[in-house]
């Protein structure tokens, strides 16, 4: 399958998202094509599972392109997404004498990408980073857009920076070793793009039905279309609003309440995409209660989320704890929680007038 390129057209720092089978084998050449010279120092950051499957191929590609590459293996569970782990990347950058002209390559899922990106943003006040996502969730969301960071005990991703990659290289063949549960979790972000702005994508997902729940039942052609359409949707929004000053906030659909699930249930109990799916269902119930969209729209969303094999029942959380956790969200403005709410398939708006009673009622409906 030929490589396809989506451009993230940022004014100051545009970059390509390259998608296609066996793309990983071209990693070194793609980096050299960005203008990095022979002998450039590269720190490849990954985790043990990904390194076992793809580390040698990535390192070989970098070495064959005459780049001075070495590997750092880190723990990469959500509970490891901390300043301490970023410190390990900084330690490796110091030990291997990374300079301002050097770069970090993140090979892994969203946790690896977030931490490696944040380390790159803060080493020598910022060096280049290349994102090579190996999970569906990272491919369609986390690797694109330059949001990097780590968790704080009080909430998810409260410590971070915007630091755009020089390149995002997506090789769908690397999904072959992804656990099915993580593949399903990534599908939540794909569904999100359909609900917030791409009705045709959502219709294609609906037509695919149970195929969505497993890579084994999804055709390579459909997977490529999903990756390209999702990347294009993310690129369009990021180009219009790099630092989340307005439009980009729509990408947080499902995340406000999803982050509550992750925080209160403990990181790792629900995968990020599973929590986002629950957050989308809850946001849909809020929209339904406020008369913003119809019961049939909510039913369509629920049906697609169910087809992807994602959880459908809101966890047994104390509503008071949920409301308190919402106040710690990054998107709070002047004490008001800002929700991304659907107004129809393909349309959302940002609202800060959702009452506590509406939130409680919506969560009860999702239980």
UniProtKB/TrEMBL annotation:
Zn(2+) binds at residues 189, 255, 272. Keywords: Amino-acid biosynthesis, Aromatic amino acid biosynthesis, Cobalt, Cytoplasm, Lyase, Metal-binding, NAD, Nucleotide-binding, Zinc. It is an enzyme of class 4 (lyase). Residues 72-184 form the 3-dehydroquinate synthase N-terminal domain. It is found in: Cytoplasm. GO terms for biological process: amino acid biosynthetic process; aromatic amino acid family biosynthetic process; chorismate biosynthetic process. It holds the Pfam family DHQS_C. The keyword Transferase does not apply. Pathway: Metabolic intermediate biosynthesis; chorismate biosynthesis; chorismate from D-erythrose 4-phosphate and phosphoenolpyruvate: step 2/7. GO terms for cellular component: cytoplasm. One of its GO terms (molecular function) is nucleotide binding. Binds 1 divalent metal cation per subunit. Can use either Co(2+) or Zn(2+). NAD(+) binds at residues 110-114, 134-135, 147, 156. Its EC number is 4.2.3.4. SUPFAM superfamilies: Dehydroquinate synthase-like (SSF56796). It comes from the Bacteria. Residues 186-332 form the 3-dehydroquinate synthase C-terminal domain. The keyword Zinc applies. Its cofactor is Zn(2+); Co(2+); NAD(+). Its main location: cytoplasm. It catalyses: 7-phospho-2-dehydro-3-deoxy-D-arabino-heptonate = 3-dehydroquinate + phosphate. Catalyzes the conversion of 3-deoxy-D-arabino-heptulosonate 7-phosphate (DAHP) to dehydroquinate (DHQ). Belongs to the sugar phosphate cyclases superfamily. Dehydroquinate synthase family. This is 3-dehydroquinate synthase. It comes from Cyanobium usitatum str. Tous.
């Amino acid at each position: 399958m030929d490589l396809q390129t989506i451009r993230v057209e940022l004014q100051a720092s545009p970059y390509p998202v390259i998608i296609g089978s066996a793309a990983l084998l071209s990693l070194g050449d793609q980096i050299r094509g960005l203008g990095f010279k022979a002998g450039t120092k590269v720190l490849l950051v990954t985790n043990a599972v990904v390194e076992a499957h793809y580390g040698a191929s990535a390192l070989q590609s970098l070495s064959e392109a005459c780049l001075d590459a070495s590997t750092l293996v880190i723990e990469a569970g959500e509970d490891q997404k901390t300043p301490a782990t970023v410190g390990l990347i900084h330690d490796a950058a110091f030990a291997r004498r990374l300079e301002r002209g050097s770069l970090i390559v993140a090979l892994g899922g969203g946790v690896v990408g977030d931490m490696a990106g944040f380390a790159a943003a803060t080493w020598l006040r910022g060096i280049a980073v290349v994102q090579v996502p190996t999970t569906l969730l990272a491919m369609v969301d986390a690797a694109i857009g330059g949001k990097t960071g780590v968790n704080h005990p009080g909430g998810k991703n409260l410590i971070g920076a915007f630091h755009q990659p020089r390149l995002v290289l997506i090789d769908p063949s690397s999904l072959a070793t992804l656990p099915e549960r993580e593949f399903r979790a990534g599908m939540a972000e794909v569904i999100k793009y359909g609900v917030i702005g791409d009705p045709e994508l959502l219709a294609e997902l609906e037509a695919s039905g149970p195929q969505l729940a497993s890579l084994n039942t999804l055709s390579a052609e459909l997977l490529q279309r999903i990756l390209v359409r999702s990347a294009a949707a993310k690129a369009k929004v990021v180009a219009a609003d790099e630092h989340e000053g307005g439009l980009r906030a729509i990408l947080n659909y499902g995340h406000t309440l999803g982050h509550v699930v992750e925080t209160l249930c403990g990181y790792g109990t629900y995968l990020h995409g599973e929590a986002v799916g629950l957050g989308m269902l809850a946001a849909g119930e809020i929209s339904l209660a406020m008369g913003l969209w119809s019961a049939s729209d909510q039913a369509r969303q629920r049906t697609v989320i169910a087809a992807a094999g994602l959880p459908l029942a809101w966890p047994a959380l104390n509503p008071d704890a949920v409301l308190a956790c919402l106040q710690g969200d990054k998107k709070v403005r002047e004490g008001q929680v800002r929700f991304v709410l659907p107004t129809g398939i393909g349309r959302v708006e940002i609202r800060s007038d959702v009452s506590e009673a509406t939130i409680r009622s919506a969560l009860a409906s999702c239980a």
